[in-house]
Design goal:
Pfam family, one: MAGE
GO biological process, one term: DNA repair
InterPro entries: MAGE (IPR037445), MAGE_WH1 (IPR041898), MAGE_WH2 (IPR041899), MHD_dom (IPR002190)
GO cellular component, one term: nucleus
Protein name: MAGE-domain-containing protein
Largest sheet: 4 strands, antiparallel
Helix content: 55-70%
Shape: globular
Structural class: alpha+beta
Length: about 375
């Protein structure tokens, strides 16, 4: 009986240990399942967070694109008035409180302008920046001649104001300006008849038959006067006195009492010469600097408006290129325009040996004329800035 009792106790103890082991395994299994469920919930939460981040990124990109489109519209509207677009206007009218997104919005707007309109926003330089560039160019030229000294780099000073400038290749523009017979016929057919009531009788539009519609899109007469003034200032050593400028205008049939005529697309039919010059100053094509009795345009010189009081007080002025002329036109383009005008197009339409000879002679003359313009300007001609 004693042995049987010990056997029963051993059997009961073994069964108890077995139950405890099974209970521990079950508990561990339940913990593993619970951990897997927790891990599954964690993955789901992480995916939801990723989705939320993607949605936020999409919303941010959409907002950047919307603001970039607003900047494009503002730039086109401002350029139509030939007024510079200031960075503070961009921040106020486009960005609002989100000023940190300026670079992203600006880059996106640049991409839209280039792909859609073939244009870009170009920053104008201040007068200090233009003078620094000119001084740097003169210094480099002097050092190249003397082969001594250390070059000093003159950094251009940005004005935080922008204009729209074409990025189309010059070859595309040249082909777009060629006459096409079909376009010419359509322009003539669409021209107003004699019976139409046209208030602009003094101006008869000329049809060019080109993709670029010069007649309806630009004020060719006023633009021609501007380019002539830029050319005269350039070949006068990049600066021209008041008396010289007025004398040249008088030779062109534009005395101070004369008027500049505009087409019917303009808000005004005519402007006096003084008013037109003031407009060119305001638009940034020309700069009128008061030099006083010292005749110096460096330190002490200041920009002045065209006022009768200054003239009566004996103040003297000098005319220079404005920042917009440097960024939109460029000295090299004006020099090329003058050289081609002076040399002409001899031999362009002839395919014989005589025509080729005339073309080669014209090319040599063109090169000599360009070098002469560069010497007259007083230094190396610059491209658009």
């Amino acid at each position: 009986m004693a042995r049987a009792t010990r056997s029963q106790k051993a059997s009961a103890s073994s069964q108890s240990q077995l139950r405890q082991s099974q209970s521990k395994r079950t508990h561990r299994a339940r913990n593993d399942d619970s951990q897997e469920e927790d891990d599954g919930d964690g993955d789901g939460g992480g995916q939801a967070d990723q989705d939320d981040e993607m949605d936020d990124a999409d919303d941010g990109d959409t907002d950047i694109k919307r603001k970039a489109n607003e900047l494009v519209r503002l730039a086109l509207f401002t350029e139509h008035k030939r007024a510079p677009l200031r960075r503070e206007d961009i921040s106020k009218k486009v960005l609002g409180s989100n000023s940190r997104a300026y670079n992203r919005v600006f880059d996106c707007a640049q991409e839209i302008l280039q792909k859609t309109f073939g244009m870009q926003l170009a920053e104008l330089q201040t007068r200090a920046g233009l003078d620094a560039d000119a001084a740097h160019a003169d210094e480099e030229l002097s050092q190249a001649r003397n082969a001594t000294g250390i070059k000093k780099k003159a950094a251009a000073v940005g004005s935080k104001t922008y204009i729209l400038r074409s990025v189309l290749h010059p070859t595309i523009i040249e082909h777009a300006a060629l006459t096409d017979e079909q376009i010419l016929e359509e322009e003539v057919a669409d021209a107003p008849s004699d019976d139409d009531d046209d208030d602009d009788e003094a101006y008869m539009p000329r049809f060019y038959g080109s993709i670029i519609s010069w007649t309806s899109s630009d004020q060719l007469g006023a633009t021609g006067i501007l380019y002539t003034l830029l050319a005269l200032i350039l070949v006068s050593g990049r600066v021209m006195s008041d008396m010289e400028l007025l004398a040249n205008l008088k030779r062109l049939g534009l005395p101070p009492s004369g008027h500049v005529t505009f087409t019917s697309h303009s808000t005004h039919k005519t402007q006096s010469v003084d008013t037109y010059l003031a407009t060119l100053i305001r638009q940034g094509y020309l700069d009128r600097v008061q030099v006083g009795d010292s005749k110096k345009s460096g330190k002490g010189a200041k920009r002045g408006r065209m006022t009768q009081a200054d003239e009566e007080n004996g103040a003297t002025y000098e005319w220079r290129w404005g920042s917009r002329a440097h960024s939109e036109v460029g000295e090299q383009a004006v020099a090329k325009f003058v050289a081609e005008f002076m040399v002409g197009d001899a031999g362009d339409d002839d395919e014989d040996e005589g025509g080729r000879g005339r073309r080669e002679g014209a090319a040599a003359k063109l090169e000599r004329m360009t070098k002469g313009i560069e010497r007259a300007a007083g230094g190396q001609l610059t491209d658009i800035k």
